[in-house]
Please model this.
Amino acid sequence: MKVKSILFARNRLFILDQTSLPQKEKFVEITSIKEAYSALKKLKVRGAPLIGVFAAYALYVSVKNIADSKKLLKKLKSNASLLKAARPTAVNLFWAIERMLETATKVSGSAPEIKKALLQEAKSIHLQDQKLCENIARFGVRLISKKDAILTHCNTGFLATAGIGTALGVIYRAFDKYGDIKVYVDETRPLLQGARLTAWELKKYGVPAVLISDNMAGFLMQKKKINKIIVGADRITKKGDVANKIGTYSLAVLARYHRIPFYVAAPFSSFDLNLKKGEDIPIEQRKEEEVKMVLGKCPLAPSGIEVWNPAFDVTPASLISAIITDRGIIYPPLGRNIRKIINPHTS
Model:
């Protein structure tokens, strides 16, 4: 069973509030750019591909009632800058916003014509993400075998995309094909996207899954309980270095030591070929309360303790067995082969 993470109907935008999961499936309407920014910042809507789709619709919604074309374009640019500031690491967000801005500037007409073009572009981005997910899954299944035990980190399924997902999309299609794969789910501290979201998704889909705390992964590998790891990506550089949810790098190091294939699944829109290496990727720093408390409720640490809370880490290309994209599987040497498959100027 697949649940839609975003809905656009009758000119209105709704998102599944992911901060309410797994206890409650609640859709909320986004009516302004402030609400859109807050939804991104508070992770009510999240996942690199999905926030790109969301931002496209949110930009349209934010200007749909403006009648003057000059005021519309000015407001659109201002709103775009605000949304970009909400989540600086995931390049899909910037990719989608730039597409919307480019669409608006190409229309030399009235405000209604600009708004019509913006809505068409947002719908196009939405549909494209669904297709990209299916293509990633189609290629990724080739790397999965019957009875595989797969470890995944954070959330990369239909809650993180407009389609079936990236890394989880591969897992879902492998389950459809073989029916006997098993998935281990990292809890993904500090916001527990694995425990709250991925475990919930897998149960919805009927995939056998085991939830573990993040610090159990290495022991599982030592016990030979895992034979593949698949994760998503928020940004991939020209060299093939990958930014993903904090904790990903640790898994990649453990995978290399235990000789377990470490795969990354991401659409072409997650590649930033303007950045050469992982050190160039901007890493989002989040509030200390996320580490000091459990989901903002249960205190864990003494007051006054210093906190470091990066939302992402960077896994170097040398630790990655392959990158599964909508355009094919990229094998090492990643830097050379990325250029052959990914063209940053096409959509």
In short: The mean pLDDT is 96. The chain has two domains: 6-135, 144-341.
